DNA sequence: CGTACCATG
DNA sequence: CATGTTACG
């Protein structure tokens, strides 16, 4: 029986108490230390994307155990909420090539691309967007010899859809941007895309349709227009939602709201994805949702393995 | 080992876990259930004042165990932080005559007088004050046949003494007010007076002098002017700081900041007091600081017993 | 440090 | 519900 009513969680940075004390079941609050995944398929690089809902918070809840176990070649983090480039040697030694996009609002948004391989170029802007400051911290493009990786933390449409118009502006310019890149090199778009593409990508499609941010007509149509551009858009490449193509009927989600016990009830959304230029699809060897990694964040990571030459040339 | 990193303290409203589990030592976090005090002296009423630093919070940490053990006839609460009159039957059944002064700022300040005896009149204003809204929630005057009880939660002078001028305005009008009342009936001024009257009323007098709110020249002089009005103030009655008169050299405090482990280090302030019209002093039978009641708040209660007829006529 | 709030998701 | 502000003491 504790004698304290303090609100501070007493979780060690290195060894979360409940991760050590785990009985083998996921705690849903802190990641266990003993995670393991199959080794990567020969000849591939492994990419992972994870919305971590504050790096500071996730770090206290087992963030590093996932990273160690997954050991991705490229790790995209969204909603980092960092205000400056972190100096954590755990990250910098593992990923020599780090790019942190940081919002102008304090502890808000934030995207990172952490890579073992050196990119040819890095960019954190969205060309043509009328309000660059609103884009800050939401997009990073890294160029490799065989592809562009575009990492995004896409705007949330907001309570009462009050920022849906702003999101539509993002979608308009982002669509043009990714289509433009695709004309130069194949593109891997990954991150928190903040849209459930179709009814099977969220638990309560009917009740949320056109009401809840992430599943409105505007957002889903914008997404479909990237996958399958309208006939009017001549010469524009198609894209593929990799996990969905590999798992046509599965209902696995990447996000469970902390509210209403959504995780326990299975009320989730698939918002975190890999969307790749159609001509890359044949090179994808694996794509999975890491459902067991719930606890350090309200999102779980998604991982994809693709032939090495796409990244390393 | 807990599996949760939730910040919500899991303390039952009725039986705080650590209060039940106590080993006999004060927990400094939650009050034990088994508190007891000597019965009141025959022929007296018992008055208690307690800054509870949010009634909602204190209620989760054993507030009622103190009230039950002390069983005061009049209980003054300061810094209640309530936004509306509480409907708690524990309070209303014990104290049929409740007055709640509530601030205009949400969950800020707040004073209450809870009484077993019916007052002849009740007032929550400070006459003549130029900014009545800043006074809201800081003062209650209840009239009994033999006295006025004035309960106050006096303004804090603020970090960097930024609200000292405002406090001086309060002190100017409050002094005139209490002196005026004293001409009609003797006065019991009680509450969080938010001043350490002299060097022995705080742990680090030297380092705090004229820097820290509560121990500046302006505040201490204003307080002394109430105890002993200057010769120029003809016909104005004197007042007595009861606890200090009864304990001329004791260093007991009523407030220990939550910061810097002040309670453990004994770094406290005596800010909560009974100050009575000089002609009432002979009727005071007891006045004590309840040092053992640390935990539900960063202040402890102060209690005084006075001949019943002062209140009940 | 602890109790509140508000914004965001 | 959880992560961050901010104000206040």
TrEMBL record, chains A, B:
It comes from the Eukaryota. The record marks 299 as: Interaction with DNA substrate. GO terms for molecular function: DNA-(apurinic or apyrimidinic site) endonuclease activity; double-stranded DNA 3'-5' DNA exonuclease activity; metal ion binding; phosphoric diester hydrolase activity. The keyword Nuclease applies. One of its GO terms (cellular component) is nucleus. The active site is at residues 153, 192, 299. Its EC number is 3.1.-.-. Its cofactor is Mg(2+); Mn(2+). This is DNA-(apurinic or apyrimidinic site) endonuclease. It comes from Suillus subaureus. The chain holds residues 64 to 376 of 377 of the full protein.
């Amino acid at each position: 029986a504790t004698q304290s009513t303090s609100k501070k969680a007493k979780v060690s940075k290195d060894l979360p108490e409940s991760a050590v004390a785990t009985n083998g079941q996921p705690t849903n609050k802190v990641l266990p230390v003993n995670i393991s995944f199959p080794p990567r398929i020969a000849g591939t690089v492994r990419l992972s994307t994870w919305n971590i809902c504050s790096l500071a918070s996730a770090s206290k809840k087992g963030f590093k155990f996932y990273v160690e176990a997954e050991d991705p070649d490229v790790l995209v983090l969204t909603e980092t909420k960092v205000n400056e480039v972190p100096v954590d040697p755990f990250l910098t030694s593992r990923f020599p090539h780090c790019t942190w996009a940081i919002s102008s609002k304090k502890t808000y948004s934030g995207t990172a691309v952490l890579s073992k391989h050196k990119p040819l170029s890095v960019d954190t802007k969205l060309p043509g967007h009328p309000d660059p400051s609103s884009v800050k911290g939401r997009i990073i493009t890294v160029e490799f010899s065989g592809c562009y990786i575009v990492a995004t933390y896409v705007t949330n449409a907001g309570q009462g859809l009050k920022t849906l118009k702003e999101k539509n502006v993002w979608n308009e310019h982002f669509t043009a941007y990714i289509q433009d890149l695709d004309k130069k090199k194949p593109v891997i778009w990954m991150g928190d895309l903040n849209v459930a593409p179709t009814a099977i990508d969220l638990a309560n499609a009917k009740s949320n349709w056109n009401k809840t941010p992430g599943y409105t007509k505007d957002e889903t149509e914008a997404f479909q227009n990237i996958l399958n551009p309208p006939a009017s858009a001549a010469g524009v490449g198609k894209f593929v939602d990799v996990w969905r193509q590999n798992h046509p009927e599965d209902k696995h989600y990447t996000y469970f709201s902390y509210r209403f016990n959504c995780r326990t009830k299975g009320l989730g959304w698939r918002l975190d994805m890999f969307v790749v230029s159609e001509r890359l699809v044949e090179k994808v060897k694996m794509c999975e949702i890491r459902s067991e990694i719930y606890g350090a964040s309200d999102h779980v990571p998604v991982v994809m393995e693709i032939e090495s030459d796409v990244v390393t040339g």
